[in-house]
Specification:
- 37% of the residues lie in helices and 0% in strands.
- It contains five helices and no strands.
- The protein has helices spanning 5-11, 26-39, 53-66, 68-78, 117-120.
């Protein structure tokens, strides 16, 4: 799923104007974004023909925060250049911590104090704050 130069000309007015020293043209960035969306691969797995993955990811991230991607995909749908609707939720194991009990580990039993403190014996640890001596 790639956009041709003719198709790009139809949606170009909806993209921000490139300024400064730009290494990737917007058409190349759009095609890279579509490649990741279609194949579900990591950004690092982008083929070399798209260029540096980090540069493309940075621009895509900037466009997403500014609402450019929403307008871009709406225009791609309106012009019938693509016929997909991208709605995805991505969870990564590094951002969702699971409690050990949630993984099937045996549950820890709570310490049940004895009904009679004398039967439990003396406390095993007492913490006393240190008070500095007066000069």
């Amino acid at each position: 799923m790639e956009i041709t130069a003719e198709q790009y000309a139809r949606i170009e007015p909806h993209l921000p104007i490139q300024r400064g020293n730009v290494s990737h043209q917007n058409l190349n960035v759009i095609n890279a974004i579509l490649f990741v969306a279609e194949n579900g691969c990591n950004w690092r797995a982008l083929p070399k023909r798209f260029g540096n993955w980090h540069t493309i990811y940075t621009r895509m991230n900037r466009w997403a925060k500014a609402g450019v991607l929403d307008r871009l995909f709406a225009e791609l749908q309106r012009e019938q250049l693509i016929r997909i609707k991208i709605e995805a939720v991505s969870l990564d194991r590094t951002i969702v911590k699971v409690h050990p009990e949630g993984t099937g580990a045996p549950k820890a039993t709570a310490h049940k104090p004895s009904a009679s403190p004398a039967a439990a014996g003396a406390p095993k640890f007492i913490w006393l704050p240190r008070v500095p001596a007066a000069p």
